[in-house]
Write a structure and sequence with these properties.
By secondary structure, this protein is an all-alpha fold. The protein has 15 helices and 3 strands. The protein is globular and about 65 Å long.
Length: 356
Amino acid sequence: MTRGFCVTRLSVSSLVCCITLQKCPVDIQADRGRERGLSAPQMENHTYNEHVLLLEGLNVTPQSSYPAFIILLVIYIFTMVANISLAVVICMERSLHQPMYILLCNMSFNDALSITTFIPRVLSDIFKASAARYITYVECAIQAFCGHMFATTGHTILMIMAFDRYMAICNPLRYASIMNNKMLVKLCVFAWGVAFLFVAVLIGLSVRLSRCRSYVFNPFCDNASLFKLSCESVFINDIYGLFFTALLFIASIVSVSLTYIRITMVCVQSKSKSLNSKALNTCFTHLAVYVIMLMTGFIIVFLHRYPQWSNHRKVASIIFPLVAPCLNPIIYGLQSKEIYKVVKNMFQSKIMSLRL
């Protein structure tokens, strides 16, 4: 590939690479394409098309394709059915129209949307050849935006749920007046609105960059996949990404930690067994869900910082986002006596109606 060809094909930022005797992005793309067994026409097609990207997808052997597809499909169906069922039960049962369960309904809705962002796409690409896993840049950006937004919303909802538990246990007399319908609507709008604004800036900083690559080295699109398509400086993206991640984790860890420290102090000072039992039951479920989400998020962020562990990161990026949405309805359904009673009564009434 000659210098002249590079000049005619690339932008000014890529021309600098050629002038400074560095390997051109085109050469890099060609090398990567050859490593993956792509023919020259295939490399030509996906290297220079600005609007179509080639997605790596889930790399499994032909023998493992069917087991991987079945496992992911079963997990996806179970997670969707469990979360949607939980949300429907809360919406239909008036006795569950309380702040804690309304927030849980938001969480279930968010979890269902979260896995729908990437699992159907991964499933559809499993049986495709590596050179046929195309995705448009717009679809990639939308997928990245939705993935980050729903992950962020999960954290903000859990922070609000911690505040709700604090008010219910530490200020029971003021709970009804503070956590009224108006406040609940504001908190829900805050949870979704803050996530939308922060992620919009995150993805906007990546979309603004010019592109000199078209191969996404990931099973699905995320923010890192977007800015890695550019040959420009991504310093601002790194700074904002670190700020955003640190702010999200620090805010959630500090707020949840302070909340549970205060709840623990109240329970220790209180001699009421009913209060301690209620606190243990409701707080355990929330804390279990929070720890699961926090740990999976930490591991993915940690693996992103070490390129030599890219294969581990790719596997983790598929498995870990499924863990919390899959376990949340199970944890809340088994631990929440109110939800368990409602579901039990629904099944009993259904069985009685069938017998009649």
